[in-house]
Amino acid sequence: MTILVIMLALSAPTLANFFHGRALDSEARRLLSLTRSGQSRAVSEGVPMELWVDAEKRNYGLEAEDSYTKTDANNGDAKAVQFDLDRDVKIEVPNLSAARPAAVVRSSSTPISTASVLPVAAKHPGLPMIRFLPDGSVSDTSPRMLHLTDRDGASLWLALAHTRLNYEIQKTQPQ
């Protein structure tokens, strides 16, 4: 019994560090899964999806764009989800200036129609939002990266891939 107690006493700090480091990794993977879910829902339902991040309140979520889901004030996205950050993890959006869309060249004779464009009323105004479009692409106004850090200073980045088609977890700050 004495040997068991000694072994437990020696291994306890190592196990604590192991599980402590897993919080950052788990949070990054959950956030990455949510991006994949949002992209998949946008394509399958034909509705833009918004993954919002509230660093101050320490939570984030995914829901269909408001203008597509509400027909009156009582309806909304029944599949909307919200997650609280692990208590040891902090999230930030380091570069709120997203990639600029390419310039559109129009001639004066090109007709402009707004008949099929619905107005967008944000449910979370002022918060950074990753917007997944029905064609599977990521909106040009979406943040290019999210930074997750734990209480020991370890960090992971959720960054837009070079193809600009999805997000990926990176261990170093993306360029």
Strand content: 15-25%
Query: Can you list the strand order of the major beta sheet?
Result: 3-2-1-5
Principal-axis shape: elongated
Distance between the termini: 54 Å
Fraction of residues in helices? 25-40%
Q: How would you name the CATH homologous superfamily of the domain at 24-98 and 124-170?
A: minor pseudopilin epsh domain
Question: Structural class of the secondary structure composition?
Answer: alpha+beta
Q: What would CATH call the class of the domain at 24-98 and 124-170?
A: Alpha Beta
**Secondary-structure element series:** HEEHEEEEEE
- Average of per-residue pLDDT values: 80
CATH architecture annotation of the domain at 24-98 and 124-170: 3-Layer(bab) Sandwich
Biggest β-sheet: count, sense, barrel? 4 strands, antiparallel
Assign the CATH topology of the domain at 24-98 and 124-170.
minor pseudopilin epsh fold
Oligomer: single chain
Please, how many helices?
A: 2
Q: What's the Cα radius of gyration? A: 21 Å
Query: How many DSSP E strands?
Result: 8
pLDDT < 50 stretches: 97-119
Brief sketch in words of this structure:
The chain is of the alpha+beta class and 175 residues long.
Structural features, described:
With 175 residues, this protein is of the alpha+beta class. The protein has a domain at 24-98 and 124-170: minor pseudopilin epsh domain (minor pseudopilin epsh fold, 3-Layer(bab) Sandwich). It has helices spanning 2-45, 66-69; strands spanning 49-54, 59-64, 81-84, 89-92, 129-132, 145-150, 155-160, 167-170. It is elongated and about 65 Å long. The chain starts with a helix and ends in a 5-residue tail after the last strand.
